[in-house]
Design goal:
Layout (H helix, E strand, L loop, with lengths): L1 E13 L2 E3 L5 E5 H7 L6 E6 L5 E9 L6 E4 L11 E11 H6 L3 E3 L10
Parallel strand pairs: 1-8, 2-6, 3-5
Antiparallel strand pairs: 1-7, 3-6, 4-5, 4-7
């Protein structure tokens, strides 16, 4: 049997853009993707601490070093620039793997979205 566990987490970053006229996804600074272990097109859960919204979407690469966090398409209706969000990715693994697995959790500066 497989269970779903937390694989990666970007804890509290600030939304820098909301682009309604895009096909969907969340754009994440590539530095944050690398540090958290997230990859392009990976399914993620986005939790908006500013308004309580939760949504699922997928990751696209943002410009490295910019701190970019942009909700695109329909997701843009779930957040405003300046909202604080948590972005999480999950993985399926068996119970033995899950028992020893350690997720990658990062805590960027919420003012700049840069790694501390």
């Amino acid at each position: 049997m497989f269970i779903e566990v937390l694989k990666s987490k970007i804890h509290q970053v600030t939304v820098t853009e909301a682009n309604l006229n895009y096909i969907g996804s969340v754009t994440i600074d590539e530095d944050l993707m690398d540090a958290s272990g997230m990859i392009e097109n990976e399914k993620v859960l986005v939790l908006n601490l500013s308004n309580g919204e939760r949504l699922e979407t997928y990751v696209i690469k943002g410009r490295r070093g910019t701190g970019e966090i942009c909700l695109n398409g329909a997701a843009a209706r779930k957040a405003m620039i300046g909202d604080i969000v948590i972005i999480m990715a999950f993985a399926f693994m068996n119970a033995d793997e899950a028992g020893s697995f350690k997720p990658k959790i990062i805590f960027p500066d919420t003012k700049t979205n840069k790694l501390i």
